[in-house]
Amino acid sequence: MKSITVFCGSSFGTDKIYEEQAFLLGQTLAKKDIQLVYGGSETGLMGTIANGALSEKGKVIGVLPQFLQTKEIAHKNLTELIIVETMHERKTKMNELCDGVIVLPGGYGTLEELFEMITWAQLGLHKKPIGILNIDGFYDDLIKLVQNMVDKGFLKQINSDMLLMSDTIENLLEKMRNYQAPTVWKVISKEEI
């Protein structure tokens, strides 16, 4: 993996460990010569992960919708900042620029980004690994919900297994490196979207 997109909150959350792990993830990616692609903001965990990568001279590309420039203040020290028109264009560009996705703690926007990327994978639109860094059990309830979807017959186990999870950076990156996309997807072509 040469480039990883990270989706995360534009807030810091209530526990310092979220900020510490975001900074460490940024540093780790840079030390491994993995380009960071993220939402382009200097606020919250978004700014923290960028700062972590930049502290180790990493390459950082931000993708920010024009209308969010006043709310999610654009980071001024990035390798590159790409301005797009819509949130959908943002996700599409971030997908184009990466070989894999990591999700950190966040709110509705972070969950929406996660589920769109995993849905695209389920539909066979990409074969990239998608990982959740489950910092301090933040995503424990989501993991239970995904298992409930399997148990109740709304999600196949093979699709549940596409979502990689770990509470440590190195273990998550190892799972992502070893990921093999399933060969059976829901049947849909890009032209049908």
Describe the structure.
- With 193 residues, the chain is an alpha/beta fold.
- Helix content is 40%, strand content 17%.
- It has helices at 16-31, 44-55, 87-96, 108-122, 140-151, 157-160, 169-177, and strands at residues 3-7, 35-38, 60-65, 80-84, 100-103, 130-133, 163-166.
- It has a seven-stranded parallel sheet with strand order 4-3-2-1-5-6-7.
- Helix 1 links the parallel strand 1 (3-7) and strand 2 (35-38).
- Helix 1 (16-31) packs parallel to helix 2 (44-55).
- It is globular and about 45 Å long.
- The two termini are 27 Å apart.
- The model has no long low-confidence stretch (mean pLDDT 93).
Rounded to the nearest angstrom, the radius of gyration is: 16 Å
State mean pLDDT (0 to 100 scale): 93
Roughly how many Å apart are the termini?
A: 27 Å
Strand and helix order: EHEHEEHEHEHHEH
How many H/I helices? 7
**Major sheet strand order:** 4-3-2-1-5-6-7
Number of strands: 7
Low-confidence stretches: none
Helix content estimate: 40-55%
What is the global morphology?
A: globular
